[in-house]
Amino acid sequence: MNEAAALRKKFSExxxxxxxxxxxxxxxxxxxxxxxxALLFLPGRRLLPAINPFYFPGLAFALxxxxxxxLRPWSDKDSVFAFAALDxxxxxxxxxxxxxxxxQRGEATKAxxxxxxxxxxxxxxxxxxxxxxxxxxWHAFAAPALAALWLALLWLGVxxxxxxxxTPRSVAEKVRQFSEELAQKAEAQKLAESVKIARALKAAADxxxxxxxxxxxxxxxxxSIEKRLEALxxxxxxxFDLGAYTREELAALKAELEAAQGRLRPSPSAGEKxxxxxxxxxxxxxxxxxxxxxxxxxxxxxxxxxxLERLEQESAGELERxxxxxxxxxxxxxxxxxxxxxxxxxAQIRGRTAQQQTANQDRSGGKGELPGDQPGxxxxxxxxxxxxxxxxxxxxxxxxxGGGSGVTWRGEAKAGESKIPEQEAPASYRxxxxxxxxxxxxxxxxxxxxKKYFLSLGSDEKNRR
Amino acid sequence: xxxxxxxxxxxxxxxxxFEAVKAELGRVVVGHENLIEQVFVALVCGGHCLLEGxxxxxxxxxxRSLAAALNLSFSRIQFTPDLMPADITGTQMLTEDAxxxxxxxxxxxxxxxxxxxxxxxxxxxxxxQSALLEAMQEQSVTVAGKGHRLESPFMVLATQNPIEMxxxxxxxxxxxxxFFFKLLLxxxxxxxxxxxxxxxTSPPPPALNRVLDAETILKIRDWVREVPIASPVKxxxxxxxxxxxxxxxxxxxAAEKYVLYGASPRGLQSLVLAAKARALLSERPNVAFDxxxxxxxxxxxxxxxxxxxxxxxxxxxxxIVDGVVAGxxxxx
Lengths: 465, 332
Hints:
The complex is a heterodimer of chains A (465) and B (332).
Chain A: H1 3-41, H2 56-71, H3 76-90, H4 95-105, H5 110-123, H6 128-131, H7 138-155, H8 171-188, H9 192-209, H10 215-232, H11 247-259, H12 261-264, H13 272-280, H14 283-293, H15 301-336, H16 344-363, H17 425-438, H18 444-464
Helix pairs in contact in A: 1-2, 1-4, 1-5, 1-7, 3-4, 4-5, 8-9, 9-10, 9-15, 10-15, 11-15, 15-16, 17-18
Chain B: H1 6-26, H2 33-45, E1 49-52, H3 59-70, E2 74-78, H4 85-89, E3 90-96, E4 102-108, E5 115-119, H5 126-129, H6 131-138, E6 140-143, E7 146-149, E8 155-160, H7 173-177, E9 181-184, H8 190-201, H9 214-226, H10 231-243, H11 253-258, E10 259-261, H12 265-281, H13 289-300, E11 305-306, H14 308-312, H15 317-327
Helix pairs in contact in B: 1-2, 2-12, 9-12, 10-12, 10-13, 12-13, 13-15
């Protein structure tokens, strides 16, 4: 083998080795930049839902590497740099550079042949891999650290909620929150079945959250509760058309009946007239009974009492039915996997309540019972406070003396003339006030204010006279 | 592709020749080792040198000694304002031939020598200075329409005094560009002054030996041209030249600001040829980047013309060349 062939082989080794190193360098750099890109992409991954964040580094790596190899392929200039580096490393005074050119050209003068021989002699023992070992750039050190950081952040779920506005909630958490609200509401309204279902839901959610059960078991528990609900679905005809009542109306009716329980049955010997008088102090019950049985004046005391009992049972049953329907709807959405909304069941409950209220307001001519802004005019449609599942009815108003304090009462507008004579109205109001206070429907802090107000109604009347 | 043993032999011979000349000159010339090397490089490249230095630094002595050591004919022309071109090139004289017939005979001027010392060249008028142009470039003179070839090797070593500028005629750019190198003589240091005192106040040293002949010099000239140079090295030299230009791609900021005209293509020839000679005299078979850098200053300094701003700010061509050498990467 002559010097030229030996030199050609040596140069070939050098170029191959340099290309390998360059390739490694590019791949490492691409890997580092891919992970940097993946880390930057992580917080905004919700914005690009089409890209699975797990695949992002791979995609970015392929893109960077391909781009680099395509834009900067190995060129003659890179070879020149490699030969120049060889000259510098072995102090060859550009012999390698010159010899490489001569060898490539093939033909050579005497002087050129001598350069080739000199270069071959100097490079004979040189091992290019030892001479130009791998030099690890920061990419090599950064890539594993960046990969670990990316995996950790991915595992911690960083960025999964970016743009969603709220923290992610598991299904179990949603179920538990719903069950707590349901329990609160059901206990307030004394709905036994709803309380049981709420407890069952809470137990299932707690088991899942504490890790005692897995997703599968949790799903099974919810399915069994749903089946239980289906079995509980109450049926039967209603005499009182309670389906047209809003949830608030039903709750108010039930509370009214419970509060008046003692007074409606003072003694078995109580007369019809006395019973009728007392019924007149219960506007909702009276209205419901009127719808169901016609004129109460034509009923006997026994008949009236039976009707009242049935009304009480049916109002409680209707509230229970609606409460269980809400649970059923919530569970059905949950089990279908329709988790697009954050709290779908609650939203739907609220939505339906609002619809019913609107329908109710429409029935009452769109007018509320609030005082109007102008003398002699009624206010706009009353806007009851938003009802959350299980939330107790609230009275709104400002506390304190002087200024503008008021109490808002919700109720249907009643058409027609008042049946209570004007002289008896304050006494009637006071009686109602006492009932409401006794029934604890007035917040404690407002009880005194309410009491003073109704007492003052009579004194004002006296003063005027 | 078999290498001949001739190449290392001729490299060694060139080196030996240079060492011999240097040693011989060292007997009478104190210091100026670099200068001697550069003059020798110019000689083996077939170039001419412009030596600049204050009086008394040994310019004339060095040139005279060089001619003596090289076994070459030598002539000295003292340039004065009244010097005529014919005083340099020679003239037609009316003489009689053997038959007594009157004929014009060409009487050769002092230019007809191997080594010509053009002392204080800037004291002659431009007309006279230009008499050297053809000789330096074509190595021939034309008198009365007839060309006369100058013997090889032919080398002009011109000197000029940078401090006495009154009554001088600065060399035109075209003529300056024809000098292969412009060399500056530095003032001797204390030790060298002592040696000068010894040499000049004691009995004169024996005459110099003739260590090199014209034939060898011409051979070395051929060998210089055969020294291989890689394309990237050539490209580096070319980029250095371009970097001196104020309006070329690859120019440097200093050149753009202070240079009126950059180095000519003769500068590139000088750069590459001198680098080859340096490689040969260093017994290296090819030109290295270092060779280019080593000869850049003497090859380019007289080829860069500064603008008014450069002159006003005291920028020198040397600074521009240094900046170019420092600023241009070897491989691009």
